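Propose amino acids for all 131 sites.
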């Protein structure tokens, strides 16, 4: 049990260092006069797509970002289900271990429901804003 916990901590700690440069080392565009164009170019839009009808639009970029984040959460949930199942098997009938594994499964399901609700809400807002 402690090995699984330590392994999970190590993975999360390592991932935090992987994503830290992405989070903290991005350039600040607040002082640039045409920051909207730089922001549009930064997310892969052409220079006149932020308000134009041709090219890639903001709603398609938001949909793509939401899809990628949903995939990441789905993969993380799958990994956590495997770990929780492993914890359940390894518990050997110990009530505390079984309870911990079951609680982990409940938290995973709640997390998936929250992500699904977020997906539905964002898609609804995007659909209403573009029509």
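Proposal:
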């Amino acid at each position: 049990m402690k090995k699984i916990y330590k392994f999970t901590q190590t993975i999360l700690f390592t991932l935090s260092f992987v994503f830290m440069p992405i989070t903290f080392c991005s350039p600040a565009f607040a002082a640039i006069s045409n920051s909207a164009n730089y922001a549009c170019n930064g997310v892969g839009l052409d220079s006149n797509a932020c308000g134009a009808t041709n090219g890639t639009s903001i709603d398609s970029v938001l949909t793509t970002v939401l899809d990628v984040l949903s995939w990441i959460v789905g993969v993380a949930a799958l990994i956590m289900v495997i770990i929780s199942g492993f914890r359940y098997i390894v518990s050997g009938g110990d009530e505390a271990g079984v309870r911990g594994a079951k609680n982990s499964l409940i938290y995973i399901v709640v997390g998936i429901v929250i992500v699904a609700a977020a997906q539905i809400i964002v898609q609804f807002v995007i659909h209403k804003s573009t029509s």
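The radius of gyration is 21 Å. Residues 2-130 form one domain.
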